[in-house]
Write a structure and sequence with these properties.
The chain is mainly beta. Helices cover 11% and strands 55% of the residues. The protein is built from four helices and 19 strands. The mean pLDDT is 93.
């Protein structure tokens, strides 16, 4: 969807080539190497000089979503991206981020390290969509830093899984900040490793992590999810897995670490299988077995 409307994409990269940068009033958009060279204050966030990737700085309130697209379109491409997004104080915005392979058998590698800074009283809805080929290797590592009274909604969705996915997400919640993380992953002949961690660092900080994971056709999913409460805050983990066939495996490892007596953190985790009674009912209504299973999986991923 993003690549069909490239005039509205603020940063678009295919393989290693930048196809489009759209800078409009209120935001600064640069390649990460250029931001390193021209804006020296960014270096404390990049940590080392980036080779490729994007920098987006939301300086004023905007009334449109930020949009970025990173694609692999040729065989055996190795992307090594470093991305930085900075939201200034009091700004509310939404970001739509697409990372994908344009074909199914490219054997590409997509490595991305991102840092997102939400300054005081800001709000970000970050919609992160992945669509990969069957032989791709993907390893995103994103870090969100939430300043006082900032709020994050992070939605990650991968319905077309790569060969391997190593997804790491780390959230630092400061005073009065909140984060709501939602992961939807459907694995097909894939090996998935998730590591999601929320740190409740400030008073009255809040964090929720919700996982919906589906394993199909010899997939292996391992999800390690943790909340560290270092201040009087609240956190909750909601982890659910659904196995479609006997050859797949799902491992859920929820962890709670409480380091403050006034903190409250909870979790629930479950792994289930297709309900045979519901499957039979749908078959009686005229659906094929595949259609019925697909419908049930869709319903599970939306819960």
């Amino acid at each position: 969807m993003v690549t069909k409307n490239v005039e509205n994409v603020h940063f678009w990269q295919v393989n290693h080539k930048i196809k489009n940068i759209l800078e409009v009033r209120g935001i600064t958009v640069l390649s990460s190497p250029k931001a390193w060279q021209e804006l020296k204050w960014t270096r404390k966030f990049f940590e080392k000089e980036p080779k490729e990737g994007y920098f987006v700085w939301v300086r004023k309130q905007i009334d449109f979503p930020l949009t970025t697209c990173i694609s692999i379109a040729s065989p055996k491409i190795f992307q090594n991206l470093t991305n930085l997004l900075v939201i200034e104080k009091g700004i509310k915005t939404r970001a739509n981020v697409l990372c994908n392979a344009t074909q199914n058998q490219l054997c590409g590698t997509h490595k991305a390290k991102g840092k997102l800074i939400l300054k005081e009283n800001s709000y970000l809805e970050y919609n992160h969509f992945h669509k990969w080929g069957k032989k791709d290797l993907v390893s995103p590592d994103y870090e969100f830093i939430l300043k006082e009274n900032s709020h994050l909604i992070y939605n990650y969705k991968s319905l077309f899984s790569p060969k391997t996915l190593n997804l790491k997400t780390t959230i630092y919640n400061n005073k009065e900040s909140s984060s709501n993380l939602n992961f939807i992953i459907s694995a097909l002949n894939s090996k998935i490793e998730l590591k999601d961690t929320v740190f409740l660092k400030g008073k009255n900080s809040r964090g929720i992590i919700k996982l919906r994971l589906v394993g199909k056709e010899n997939s292996q999913i391992r999800a390690k999810t943790a909340i560290f409460a270092r201040a009087p805050g609240r956190g909750h983990l909601d982890c659910q897995g659904l196995l479609i066939d006997k050859g797949s495996k799902i491992s859920l490892i929820p962890e709670l670490f409480c380091e403050h007596k006034e903190a409250q953190i909870t979790h629930e985790a479950s792994i289930g299988k297709i309900d045979e009674e519901a499957l039979g009912y749908l078959r009686m209504r005229g659906l094929t077995e595949k259609e019925a299973i697909d419908l049930m999986v869709t319903g599970f991923l939306k819960t």
